[in-house]
Amino acid sequence: MAVATKPTVIDGVSYGIGQTLPDFGSIVVTARSADGSVRRYEGLSADFDKLPTYCASGSVFFELNTGATYRFHKPTKKWYHFNSAGSSELPDATLLGVMED
User: Fold this and answer.
1) Does residue 37 or residue 89 have the better pLDDT?
2) Residue 12 has what pLDDT?
3) Shortest CA distance to 12 belongs to which of 71, 72, 54?
4) Burial class of residue 59, CB neighbours in 10 A (0-12, 13-18, 19+)
5) CA dist 78 to 2, 15, 30, 47, 96, Å?
6) Nearest to 57 by CA among 12, 93, 15, 5
7) Nearest CA to 94 among 14, 40, 22?
8) By percentage, how much of the chain surpasses pLDDT 70?
9) Stronger pLDDT, 67 or 85, i.e. the higher one
């Protein structure tokens, strides 16, 4: 792992000089909630183990190469698979309402 040579911010987390920087591999953040705690990530399945566990419940990871989607549960600090492969839809980071007929 790399070490910060200057103050660095990665995924909204600050690292000081000399601190170890995380290796996210192919994983990138594609969206954040207004307060930054709920995040949407995408990347390759090979990097699943590199996902952070400091984000809030409801954060989502989409595997680009498999179509699998995972949702983070903060109390257990685990990512859980919640849809079948092939779906590319990601839920919104914030639910604003539900429309009814």
Assistant:
1) 37
2) 86
3) 54
4) buried
5) 25, 23, 20, 15, 25
6) 93
7) 40
8) 81
9) 67
In the three-class reduction of DSSP (H, G, I as helix; E, B as strand; rest coil), residue 98 is classed as coil
Q: Give the DSSP H/E element, type plus range, for residue 42.
A: strand 39-43
pLDDT tens digits for 34-53? 998 999 999 999 999 999 99
For 38, the token pair is: 């709920």
- What's the mean per-residue pLDDT of the chain? 85
User: DSSP for 61-94?
Assistant: EEETTT--EEEEETTTTEEEE-S-TT------SS
| Residue carrying the six token digits 């990138």 | 28
Single-letter amino acid code for the residue at 84: S
